Amino acid sequence: MPEDNVKKPSEPSGKEPAPKEDRSLDFVREIVSEDLKSGKNGNRVTTRFPPEPNGYLHIGHAKSICLNFGIAKENNGICHLRFDDTNPAKEDIEYVDSIREDVRWLGFDWKDKEFYASDYFDKIYEYAVMLIKKGLAYVDDLTGEQIRQYRGTLTEPGKESPFRNRSVEENLSLFERMRTGEFEEGSRVLRAKIDMSSPNINLRDPTIYRIKKSDHHRTGNKWCIYPMYDFAHCLSDSIEGITHSICTLEFENNRPLYDWFLNALKTSCHPQQIEFARLNINFTVLSKRKLLRLVEENFVRGWDDPRMPTLSGLRRRGYTPEAIRTFCERIGVSKVESVVDIAFLEHCLREDLNRRALRVMAVLKPLKVIIDNYPEEKTEMLQAVNNPEDESAGTRQIPLSKVIYIEQDDFRENPSKDFFRLSLGKEVRLRYAYFLKCENITKDPATGEIIELHCTYDPSTRGGNNPADGRKVKATVHWVSAAHAIAAEARLYDYLFTKDNPNEEAEEKDFTAFVNPKSLEILKDCRVEPCLANAAAGNLYQFERLGYFCVDPDTTSSNLVFNRTITLRDQLAKIEQGKKKK
Ligand code: ATP
Ligand code: MG
């Protein structure tokens, strides 16, 4: 809640990165740079961001987007947007649209290089036929369960399927019949013939095609067999002429398979797969599957709920693309798994908002104040600074009249010694206005609740200046004029999870057990400065002393709704201060 002093510029986090030019290249950029030097790909850099359209993008994807698009841009290359849409059951056009919107919003442009793995289904099918002809793939009649049993474990080799040695002709005929829909789902698959005793389980004759009698959002009912991700992914990369196929560490053990397919098929382009550590952040989950559960089980209001770590949620919350890009740049890229403190993301956000947000006054929990010695009919205009960080933002005029609202928290009936804001007989400064002294409290006789304060002001302190008698006050409070203020709703958010690492299952509870029941607080009776009358969805402001807020798209002409993007206090700074106190 409000601090005793008006906001200071954002505090340092203790994790300030070195200026960009002083930093050496990360290991991925190092590889790309070496390849350019050696002329490996004919001086060409082509990357891709390959989402599966089965959910909305989250901030983990932003790391991958910044890396892939960033590397392309820095090297005069191009980054493709490729939808890895090989699973018709879970994918949807809604997700495709949201992904395009989010990548664009983050500030990246794929020009006309928008591709779909499903565009290559014909080619990928031909590649499968080629493998069969080379004796490197076979149709297997084992059930899914049997295939799993035959696969072996990390310590035991797998067992060969009795169907492994079918003739090329039989395999070609069976695969064709799979394609024409003759067989039931799950009754047969096409497998690559590699090595059932390989220490790398990915190489134990992986399935490359399966029967799936579902319509696909792009190819309709043309196919009833679909390539598996591993097979489709490397071939899509190769078809597109990708030079560096950058992915997260969990695909490290798939790289030998990726290379096996491309070598077996002697493709003209053989992209280099490079793995980096995925982004993890505490107090949240970064997995589309988990985020989908939060949406479907109504823990949140949708994919773009401002508590979600999705890009659409962060956007609605008031995050700027600049803040997210800065965050991604500063966390860097490495091979070591780690968890980034959410306070660091917030720090990057505050730094950006501090520069751009216009300052206004708003009262979240209003307490009525009557200035007894202020003329009844008078309204005067006082000058306020729009952004102390940016002179070009200029100034504005704020109306003052006899009745104002201040924050309930800024008044105490029984103040402790270190409470310097308003209390009976005490004086404070009204931001940009006058010194104000509390003379009387009016209470509801039935409940004892404070209804209003009666105060007096000192006309010699206009603009908040100290009076000639040298009197000083220790606190400045924000306020709005009752007659001029606009009613608004404010939605205050806290972390979505109460646990530092909600992914870590405890006592057999799954992650939803740690959803924070108090992650949303709605205040319906707020009052904001009249200059916000025409504020449009997405506009960002700093409510002085309260935090950064942005206008929610739920806003209508009769109901102005704000999301609290972030409080002013830097958690990192707070943690540091806390340590010092102890
Ligand atoms: P999720 O685990 O959330 O379902 P995913 O990896 O299945 O994510 P994809 O749509 O396959 O999602 O991801 C597209 C790209 O984004 C991939 O290259 C993937 O490696 C990358 N990516 C996904 N999550 C992260 C993350 N947390 N950090 C960095 N990159 C990520
Ligand atoms: Mg995936």
Description of the molecule:
The protein has 582 residues and is an alpha/beta fold. The protein has three domains: 27-117 and 233-348, HUPs (Rossmann fold, 3-Layer(aba) Sandwich); 121-231, Glutamyl-tRNA Synthetase, domain 3, CATH 3.90.800; 359-576, Beta Barrel (Ribosomal Protein L25, Chain P), CATH 2.40.240. The chain has 13 helices and 25 strands. The strands form six sheets. A seven-stranded mixed β-sheet has the order 10-23-24-25-21-22-11, covered by helices on one side. Helix 2 (59-74) packs across helix 11. The longest helix is centred in the first third of the chain and has 16 residues, at 59-74. It binds adenosine-5'-triphosphate and magnesium ion. The site of adenosine-5'-triphosphate (ATP) has 15 residues, from helix 2, strand 8 and helix 9.
What's the short version?
The protein contains 13 helices and 25 strands. The protein has helices at 27-38, 59-74, 93-106, 121-133, 144-150, 168-179, 229-239, 255-264, 288-296, 311-317, 321-331, 342-356, 571-581; strands at residues 46-49, 78-83, 114-116, 137-140, 189-192, 207-211, 225-227, 244-248, 272-276, 358-360, 362-363, 366-371, 380-385, 395-400, 403-407, 427-430, 435-443, 450-458, 476-477, 479-481, 486-493, 520-528, 540-543, 547-551, 560-566.
Output the keywords.
582 residues, alpha/beta, Rossmann fold, Glutamyl-tRNA Synthetase, domain 3, Ribosomal Protein L25, Chain P, seven-stranded mixed β-sheet, 25% helix, elongated, binds adenosine-5'-triphosphate, binds magnesium ion
